[in-house]
Write a structure and sequence with these properties.
The structure is a homodimer. With about 625 residues, chain A is α/β, with parallel strands linked by helices. Chain A contains 20 helices and 21 strands. In chain A, strand 3, helix 3 and strand 4 form a beta-alpha-beta unit.
């Protein structure tokens, strides 16, 4: 039931069009009841004040067959409502029967009910000379009974007595047995309905082995890969094994986020008209991505999870902000559920944020907002998890974990463009399980202690940090560098604040207590600052997105935000004055490169060849470390 | 023009119902054109795949008179579109003529046009054997011409030649004079239209004197006041003086946010049906608060500002998150405008977030989200401003400033419940102009240096910090305490990061370099951490909202989040071990009080009398300071 007095965002919403995404053969049905009682807190509602014919047109235009229950006499209305409900349910059964017996998936015009009754119906009529029933004044508190309104006591009494408690309860206050008899039994009771406590119905996903889709990585950075493209194949296998238990949601982005492999085993659910050249549409598809509305996807997925099933929402990173408020409510709901012992755990709400801020081949400044992470971590630490896998194998490992988890909100940020792959699948599993770790093959401080720590989190920062490290190691071979990659963002927070947080000892062991840390971060740099506020080492210098960018080359996006290798090298030099002239000359070279870069992209419209073709391990110093610390060929 | 291929959130949106909020006499008109070209990036659109009759019903149900232009033959369609546009404009003129001559405000059925044409119309037909024109494949890049697709060059050539450049330009590449002649002249050119560069048309608001509405504050905390109720009267005066230049927007919250005074001089704009008992509805009202949709209010206000006029959006604090994404786009738009010298400044986007997280008389956990501030400050520092005035006089001063400002987004958080008033209007103006300052009348470290600094930001934290100070000064009269109140949140950030930020010298002078700071903050505590990350003094301990709360008493909300006086006193004791036994005994007393509080609210459903009736200055130590540092009676 939708109360028009609660939010016009509901009564006027896109959700009415969900009937184009419902298969009369395989799906159940919904009977929407619009309770048109006409008022919000102090205003009329819009749908209550248009003409009857317009209201009828509106719902027919949304694809429904509206049935009207209108009036203000309780007795008449009870009967009318009962008979209309009866008719609606018969209509639904008839539609389903026809569809299932005739295999007819023509989009049905499902019934819906408009219940128009007075607001505050049967409540106080007139209080202090003002009409209450049937007006906005019946919202919230129709009658204030307190020390300043003694005359309202009589009004309250007569209102309460109008319910005729003496007909409902016996002299001992017990509900009359013949009335108790009317209530449904067992699981049909509203509070015991397992569909409203979906964890009871939850069946674990049958999980295929994500390792089957691993990218073969002969040595770090030796091959390029498209992370979400790899993930798509894993999702395809999951969709295949869990046809009635798993769905993919997204606002028309399943293909553009490179998850199209799922269409090898299922389709997009679509029950409106089809024409030639449509792709992957079917009434019984398991992918819901044919309505370009983030609100719609979020609402559908939340509802699906609440019934005990599993799914994920893939979205452009910037536009997930559209559902900030909906995410908040779900996170709050999960938090409260943890306090209710009878509420069984449900599958986690999984977000895959692809097409992220650093990938702007077509889109520009409007498509750049990595701040969903900031929003998410304001919620309770026992609910929220944030992962930024650096390559495809890490993404596989992370997503396998997320889909098995319960009662969390998991946010995973991943790219779709071809970028270097760093870890073998075995390494990725270990790294992602730890959530954070030193990349020994990129570091050269094994024999002593680092001069500088280079941290990275997210695919693009990881690439640039490693490129900066390769420049530093080539030019300053004596400089001892430790490279730390972060997959599980919450590792940065203190253990006392988040269950995933590193202990102070572990954090200090990784990042040192006092060495300078140059940290490349996927999102807004202040997020790392707030997570590490309590940490001992204050020499933390974070580069991240700073609201600069337009439609430009991939590398120039990083340059505009000081997250590129040439800025990062300068950051290191700035923090290590003992480098002296060597540092000054290197800094000059970096500045020269930035000018060369700008001039080149102005002229050619693409990045410098040495940027496009850069690979880890081109320089001897890195090859040496790689070969001693790491088997050169992956044994899989 | 609304392209159905861009976002179903637009083509199916609540905005169609804006026609109930348009006065045919005093307002202009809009002619919406739905360009139904049928496809998104890889899917059909919903409205393109319903039946013609449903589409017609949908728009009639939304209150429009739809005119259809459908086909795929360019010549025919050009003529049909031209004649339909002509008819629509005639219809609009007829409606306006009738309304204005007959003074007839009956809601008109305005015309709208559905333009159904093939996507990628007249572009490439078939590429690599796949149909392009009229399918989703025409989205973005219909034809990829690169080194791997040499055969596409001929396709591109024939496509480009189909525009017959030789008929449009002469042999020197100049547009044919007879064609140039067709373009509009001067300000009627699209790029020169002043309505699209609203700053040109902007007229300053006529600003009344906010001091006329000042609350008389004989001494700090002596009287209570309802901050937004006071602001409402100032807004009323502004609305009166600027009838065609100022509007108030909100989702049915103008009254509940206590801004109802504006209805003394104007009404809610409403052109749907009216009935008895409606309040303040009129076709020509200047308040738009009769549609309960935050998205709608934000969209309306942004559009209004862009035409060079002024306004504000009042909203419940938690639900402003619904428009996170819309705010982002406006902030990004303002940032880019600053880089365009021809774009004139427009009035700031002003948010008044009332009914905030600490005021939960009816609503509960779902209504608690102070995180809009976190979101806002991720945008460019030269765009965003955040104010948390501690009382009504501060709110008046802040809002006067905001309404005079240009090209900012101003976020103001203010309460509506009766809370102590601290500053006279003269003091408030000075304090708000500085944005941050020591409240000398509450401090007792004037003769030396503080033992502890107590910071506060927001009405509720200010109250609790002052209550904690009064307890500390009563029990530990030798303890030297400095009280600092923050109105302008960005003062906390470094001057190098935000134009309002305090210099390091000023910050250190206020907060000291090493004394413990106990800081009560309105929002999530980590926001203060990230703003102060670079500051010298690391002994900062922030209490704020930590996602705890339900429908409970006002004071219990603070207790649940450790922001109450009894927790704050304990925080001070914890940080000052030299207090010894005195501290231990005081801490015990505070713990006892918390238990007493819990028991009392369980039994009585309201806060302890000593909480409800608490006033600053009840204890001698405070009276002494007050009388020496401050005139006891305000001279106004």
């Amino acid at each position: 039931m939708i109360g028009d007095g609660e939010a016009e965002t509901a009564s006027l919403a896109t959700a009415w069009h969900s009937n184009k995404f419902l298969d009369p053969i395989t799906d159940g049905a919904v009977l929407p009841i619009l309770h048109l009682n006409g008022y919000k807190i102090s205003n009329p509602t819009v749908l209550a004040r248009i003409e009857h014919e317009e209201l009828d047109h509106f719902f027919r235009g949304c694809g429904w067959n509206p049935l009207f229950v209108e009036g203000d006499d309780p007795e008449t209305m009870h009967e009318l409502m009962a008979s209309t409900l009866e008719k609606a349910i018969e209509d639904i059964r008839e539609i389903q029967k026809n569809a299932r017996e005739q295999n007819d998936t023509t989009r049905p015009r499902w019934p819906m009910i408009v219940l128009r009754s007075p607001k505050g119906w049967t409540g106080p009529q007139v209080v202090d000379g003002l009409q209450i029933e049937g007006t906005f004044r019946a919202h919230q508190v129709p009658l204030l009974v307190d020390i300043e309104h003694p005359d309202h006591v009589a009004l309250l009494e007569s209102w309460m007595k109008s319910y005729k408690a003496e007909e409902l309860f016996d002299e001992k206050g017990r509900l009359m047995p013949e009335l108790a008899e009317l209530a449904p039994k067992g699981n049909r009771r509203m509070g015991a309905n397992p569909h409203a406590n979906g964890g009871i119905l939850l069946r674990n996903l049958i999980m295929p082995d994500f390792r089957l889709h691993a990218v073969t990585v002969p040595s770090p950075g030796a091959v390029n890969g498209q992370d979400t493209l790899v993930l798509g194949k894993f999702l395809r296998d999951i969709a295949k094994l869990n046809q009635k238990n798993f769905r993919v949601f997204g606002p028309d982005e399943t293909l553009s986020n490179l998850l199209g492999a799922v269409f090898e085993v299922t389709n997009r659910q679509w029950d409106a008209r089809e024409v030639a050249n449509d792709e992957f549409l079917a009434p019984a598809g398991r992918v819901l991505d044919s309505m370009l509305s983030e609100n719609q996807c979020e609402g559908w997925l939340e509802g699906y999870l609440l019934t005990g099933r599993h799914g994920l929402f893939n979205s452009y990173e910037a536009f997930i902000r559209i559902i900030d408020s909906m995410f908040s409510q779900h996170a709050k709901w999960l938090k409260v559920c943890l306090e209710l012992p009878w509420r069984r755990k449900i599958s986690s709400l999984n977000y895959l944020l692809a097409s992220h801020v650093w990938q702007q081949d077509h889109n520009g400044f409007t498509h750049q907002d990595p701040g969903f992470l900031d929003h998410v971590i304001n919620k309770k630490a026992d609910i929220v998890r944030v992962y930024l896998p650096a390559d495809a194998n890490c993404l596989l490992s992370v997503f396998d974990h997320c889909l098995r988890s319960r009662n969390y909100v998991n946010v995973v940020v991943a790219g779709k463009h071809a970028l270097p792959q760093w870890l073998t699948i075995e390494e990725a599993v270990v790294h992602c399980t730890e959530g954070i770790g030193i990349w020994q093959w990129a570091s050269n401080d094994q024999e002593g202690e680092p001069d500088v720590v280079m941290g990275c989190c997210g695919d693009t920062p990881t690439l640039e940090i490693l490129a900066a490290v390769s420049i530093l190691r080539e030019h300053l071979p004596d400089l001892k560098i430790r490279v730390i990659n972060v997959v599980d963002l919450m590792k940065l927070q203190s253990a006392s604040e988040h269950p995933h947080g590193l202990s102070e000892l572990d954090y200090d062991a990784l990042f040192t207590k006092d060495k300078h840390i140059i940290f490349g971060f996927h999102g807004y740099s202040s997020l790392v600052h707030r997570l590490t506020y309590r940490r001992t080492n204050r020499n933390l210098h974070v580069r991240g997105y700073k609201e600069e960018g337009t439609i430009t080359t991939a590398f120039d996006m990083r340059v505009q935000n000081d997250l590129d290798r040439f800025h990062l090298v300068q950051d290191v030099v700035d923090r290590l004055p003992h480098l002296g002239s060597k540092g000054a000359y290197l800094k000059q070279e970096m500045k020269d490169m930035l000018i060369k870069h700008k001039n080149y992209i102005d002229e050619h419209g693409e990045d410098l060849p040495e940027i496009r073709n850069w690979k880890w391990g081109q320089h001897k110093s890195q090859q040496r470390t790689t070969s001693t610390k790491q088997p050169a060929v992956n044994q899989r």
